[in-house]
Write a structure and sequence with these properties.
Shape: globular
CATH architecture: Distorted Sandwich
Number of strands: 11
Helix content: under 10%
Number of domains: 1
Distance between the termini: 29 Å
Radius of gyration: 16 Å
CATH class: Mainly Beta
CATH superfamily: Deoxyuridine triphosphatase (dUTPase)
């Protein structure tokens, strides 16, 4: 089983569950949960208001929507986002997916609530033969690097 749910802070705030737009689309469109202005040279975490659940051997990869990159000149600050299965319902932020956008331009860029900003693709991953990872996630965004 895999899918999306609205995080508790954004319940009753008009958040749409990510959807694929065509039957051959790989990605689920993620929308901005609030209006955000990105000033030139600025990186901001744009809230989506959703979290993703999936089996332990899957990951949700986050990519910027090509239309956002081309039309507004924005970049995904980390290149590709990785949402691990154990990020869901973590005690720090409930698994809230935040999209780190970077504005390399010379003018401010406005993102409006409901604007599709990224796409998430669920995929399985493989483990090395000698993998012995036994740690437990205790934090939210960026916590596996601690």
């Amino acid at each position: 089983m895999r899918g999306f749910k609205v995080v508790s802070f954004f319940e009753d705030k008009g958040i749409n569950i990510p959807q694929r737009k065509t039957k051959a689309s790989a990605g689920y469109d993620l929308e901005a949960a609030i209006d955000v202005v990105l000033n030139p040279g600025e990186v901001k975490l744009v809230p989506t208001g959703v979290k993703a659940y999936m089996p332990e051997d899957e990951v949700l990869l986050i990519y910027i929507r090509s239309s956002l990159a081309v039309k507004k000149g924005l970049l995904l600050a980390n290149g590709v986002g990785v949402v691990d299965a154990d990020y869901y319902d973590n005690p720090e932020n409930e698994g809230h997916i935040m999209i780190p956008l970077f504005n390399p331009g010379k003018e401010p860029v406005t993102i409006r609530k409901g604007e599709r900003i990224a796409q998430g693709i669920f995929t399985r991953y493989l483990k090395a033969d000698d993998d012995e990872a036994l740690g437990q996630r205790t934090g939210g965004f960026g916590s596996t690097g601690q």
